[in-house]
Amino acid sequence: MTIKHSHTDLFDVPAVLGHQRHLAHGVNTHGVMGAGVAKQFARRYPQLLPAYRAYINHCTRYDIQLPGDWFRFEAGTDVIHNLFSQDAPGPTAQLEWLELSLSHAMNSCEPDVTIHLPWIGAGIGGLTRQEVARTFLSVASDYPDVHLHVHTHPAEEIDEHAVKILFG
Q1: How far apart, in whole angstroms, are the C-alpha atoms of residue 80 and residue 89?
Q2: What is the pTM of this model?
Q3: Which residue, among 4, 85, 96, has the nearest Cα to 37 in the 3D structure?
Q4: Which of 24, 42, 124, 129 is surrounded by the most beta carbons within 10 Å?
């Protein structure tokens, strides 16, 4: 397991020839991608929002619990891991849900895959980056062959305490 951090835009990660690019972000259980990183995903991948809503409807119909679940969406060579880390839009993210959904995503990956992700749940979701860093570290330790690369957007300040948690 490796965890990397960079002060770069998540969407600027280059695709590697012959490999899928894995990106992850947090979503809510209400089918809304109206703000933050989720809104950027919805804009960049027009088929994502309808597929995400169809998945929610399927889970609702069959009484499948969404908090802590994960929805994988493929678009060309990109794999989008939608992590159900919060109930409703706004500051409703839960560390337990983030932990479960990230575990599902990492468990689905082949060895040596790197998942690129923002500080899921921090900011709009209401969690702190320090809490999120501890969760990322805890989950990643269970998947030694899958790697995480955490991105802080260039327009945002780096949280040195959170980065220190990631790297000791």
Answers
A1: 19
A2: 0.96
A3: 85
A4: 24
Give SS3 for 157.
coil
Q: Please, are residues 67 and 97 in contact by the beta-carbon 8 Å criterion?
A: yes
pLDDT (0 to 100) of residue 108 = 97
Token representation of residue 111: 């060895």
Confidence band for 167, pLDDT divided at 50, 70 and 90: confident
Q: What is the mean pLDDT of residues 91-98?
A: 98
Q: Span 3-167: which CATH code?
A: 3.40.220.10
Helix (H) or strand (E) holding 36: helix 36-44
Residue 5 to residue 125: CA distance in whole angstroms: 20
167 versus 34: the higher-pLDDT residue is 34
Q: Which amino acid is at 79?
A: V
3-state SS assignment for residue 67: coil
Q: Domain-by-domain residue ranges, the chain?
A: 3-167
